[in-house]
Each structure stands twice: as structure tokens, then as C-alpha cells.
Amino acid sequence: MKAFVTGGTGFIGSYLLKALLDQGCEILALRRKESNLSRIKPFAEKIKWVMTEDDWQTVAANYRPDIIYHLAWQGVSAADRISYACQTDNIALLQSVLDIADRSDVSKIVSTGSQSEYGAFTQKVDETYPLHPNTAYAACKVAASYILRTYCEGKGIKWYWLRLFPCFGPGESERWLIPSLIRSICTKQSMDFTPGEQKLAYLYVGEVSQALAAIAHKNAPSGAYNVSADHPMPLREMVTLIRNKINPNFKLNFGALPYRPGQCMYMEGDTTALRREIYSLRTDNFAERMAQTIDYYTNKFKQQ
After folding, report:
1. 104 close to 63: Cβ distance less than 8 angstroms
2. Where are the strands (E) in 174-291, listed by range?
3. pLDDT at position 177, please?
4. What is the model's pTM?
5. At residue 48, does pLDDT exceed 90?
6. CB under 8 Å, gap of 24 or more: what pairs does 81-87 form?
7. Number of helices followed by number of strands (H, E) in the chain
């Protein structure tokens, strides 16, 4: 199995590369010359690389992949998610990936969406729940999924759009909640939060990568699939749990910040379809995986 991967040096992408290598896949991956390779350092030499500064589309097409994993997406920070100028550039990148499929014999294309495509919801949602994006990021994710589906159905290519719900694990960008919380606990006296009433089902990132990698060897129906844990926890409870494991005296200022406009207060996806057709997620080891994640960041920040 030959795979072409974009976004492989990112948080989820790095775990995907490792999962594909463990399955025996050959990999050609796209990256920038300045990409941070720290997440993939142990196995970077096992992967063939092509740079964005080169004629990467021709290189990828000539590689003749069996499957394409398109995970690259720019503008994932909170500020960029409301910028249409930033988000619409991702549509052009998707078109570049589809051009590779036009020039090769790829049989499957896999890409990643987001729970934000559903907008603000208050219950566990399955893939039939109406899409109601309320940010530029979410709207362009929806647009990308329609483009992927329409293109692949016209070409007879199988397509998979995995809508990702909150995930966690070692290697996540330090600007996100869990790493930034642990950094603050290790270096400061307190941290401000919203009231923390929102309930989030956090899934270990390794399970996300296993679900993605499983598609390479499964004859699953094309379509959109939710990827989510099934143990929603109030944000306040999760933050307090992490604080107590590191420093019970650290002050958590709940209510110091307002909820953002359109804040989704409940994030859990129904994964019945994913479990039936592609991969049976393991979600019973949350405490163990969270403890490993806390240890990873605590050691990292205390050494800085």
C-alpha cells in the first residue's frame, strides 16, 4: 500500500504517519522546508518527503499512491478561524490534491473535517445531524467535504471525511487548552477560564490515527464519519482533574472569561458508523492516557 500524506508533521498527522508505517505502508509526505520535525523525529527517515517549494504535485502523481490522506489545513488558531481570506486558501490546496488524483490511479481519498461543521448543538450527534457552520473555518470545512464528495463520486474514487471531535495527547500545539493549562500550572500561580460548564468528549489522538489508518485496508462505504470519545466531561471537571494531579494549590479562575459568541456547550459524536465500518475506537482508557499526557507536558515544561 502506497500512501501520499499532507499535514504529516502536525499533531494528528504525525500519529497517522506512525500508524501507517506500523501497517507496512510506503509513504510519501508533503512538508515545508521549515516544518518542525520534532513530532516525527524517531521515524522521519522511513518516509519519503517532497517539499512544498518543489513541484510536489508532479512528484506525488508520479509516486502513484493507492490512497491519499489530506490533513493539511492552515488557519486553525482561534483568530484565524473567523478569517475567510485565510480559510478559503484551503479550498485551493484541496484542489491541488485532487489534481494529483487526476494524474494517478488513487482509489481512496481521506480527509479530516470537524465537529464545528454541525455548529452549536446540545446533544450527541450522528452524521445525519444538519450542518450549520458558524465560522469561516467550519464553513470552508463543509465546502471542502462537498467538493471532495462530488469529485470522488464523479471519478469513481472512494472518499472518507472524518469529522474530528476534541482530542488530546502528547505533541499537541502548546496554544491549545491542555498543554497551555499544564504550562501555566508549571510556571504561574493562576489561570483564567470561562465558567467551564461545556461538556466535551475528549479522545486520545492515537485512536484518531488508528481510525484514519484503518481506512487503507478496509472496504468501507464512502461517506462522512464522526470520530469522538463517548465520555463527555464538564470542562471545569477535566481542568480541575489535571490541576490536582500537578499542583492542587494552583488557582483556577472559573468565570473570569466570557464564553465566545456561538460557543458550543456540548461536544460528543455518535460513532456507530465508524465502529461498524472502519474501526472500533477504544475509549475506556481515558484516565491512563490523560495521565501519560500530563506526565509528558509536565516533564517538558519543567525542563524549559
Report:
1. yes
2. 190-193, 199-200, 203-204, 223-227, 233-234, 251-254, 266-267
3. 96
4. 0.96
5. yes
6. 81/135, 81/136, 81/137, 81/138, 82/135, 82/136, 82/137, 83/136, 84/136, 84/139, 84/140, 86/136, 87/136, 87/137, 87/139, 87/140
7. 10, 14
As a whole number of angstroms, the distance between CA 222 and CA 209 comes to 18
The grid coordinates listed for 61 are 502523481
What is the residue-averaged pLDDT of the chain?
A: 96
List the grid coordinates of 232.
Answer: 463527555
> Which stretch of DSSP H or E encloses residue 162?
strand 158-164
Neighbours of 158 (CB within 10 A): 19
Q: Are 99 and 150 in contact (CB under 8 A)?
A: no
3-state secondary structure at position 63: helix
Angle separating helix axes 235-246 and 177-187, nearest 10 degrees:
40
Q: What is the pLDDT of residues 59-117, one digit of tens each?
A: 999 999 999 999 999 999 888 999 999 999 999 999 999 999 999 999 999 999 999 99
3-class secondary-structure state, position 200: strand
The span from the CA of 244 to the CA of 235, in Å, is: 14
**Nearest CA to 215 among 70, 110, 112?**
110
Helix (H, G, I), strand (E, B) or coil at 85: helix
